[in-house]
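REQUEST ID: PR-0412
SUBMITTED BY: lab tech R.K.
PRIORITY: routine
TASK: structure prediction, single protein chain
INPUT:
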Amino acid sequence: MARRSVRIAASIALVILLGFVAAATLKAGPKSADGNTPATAKPDANNAAAIKPAGDLVPIPLVLPKPQFVGTPQNFQGIANLEKPLGKPREPFYAPKGTTNVAFKKPVKSSDEQPIIGEIEMITDGDKEATDGSYVELGPLKQNITIDLGASYNIYAVIVWHYHKQARVYKDVIVQIAGDKDFIKNVHTIFNNDTDNTMGLGAGKDRNYVETSEGKLIDAKGVVGRYVRCYSNGNTSNDLNNYIEVEVYGTPAK
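STATUS: complete
OUTPUT:
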């Protein structure tokens, strides 16, 4: 009788021991082929990119023109609040899938109806090169141009190329988006480096910047609008205002 009790106790102990072993194995997870590292190790950042959910952001389809500085860049020490150059190519800008340049070939109006050089339509013609015949030159001091996108869009980025044939800083640059052509309804100021309110649209806090072939990319943060207006007030080379191209990246607003 005593021997039977011992055998039963031993069997129970063995079952308990096997249960502990199984639980420990499940907790550790399956092993890899070398038997050392877990096969279900936490994925690194590269692996995580492959399992992002649908609807992720993607780089906007931006094609940059050829760099073409001519001559020696002038001294910009007298320009306050000047943005330091990155010293490397700008990182891609991400926006929702389906985002395109919705300003391409869209109509443009200007405060200067008779440009000194070029035609207003050239501002959205897709030509971003800094060559003769690719830019518009407006009159001196305060000027603006307005692009009618033709419908309301969720706007994620606006990129402005004033004139990148030489290093210049354009003054009192302001970019606004609105729902109406008179800029009364739903007006959003997405960039303003007019720190002393010269343009009368409020003092801005954005930094001055040197023109390059990359253009000035402005994050519009998805605001909804139909009209895009760009202001400037001459530049460090002269009092005139130039535009090579303006691109507006967005998706149709629902």
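NOTES: The first strand starts at residue 57 and ends at 59.
REVIEWED BY: pending
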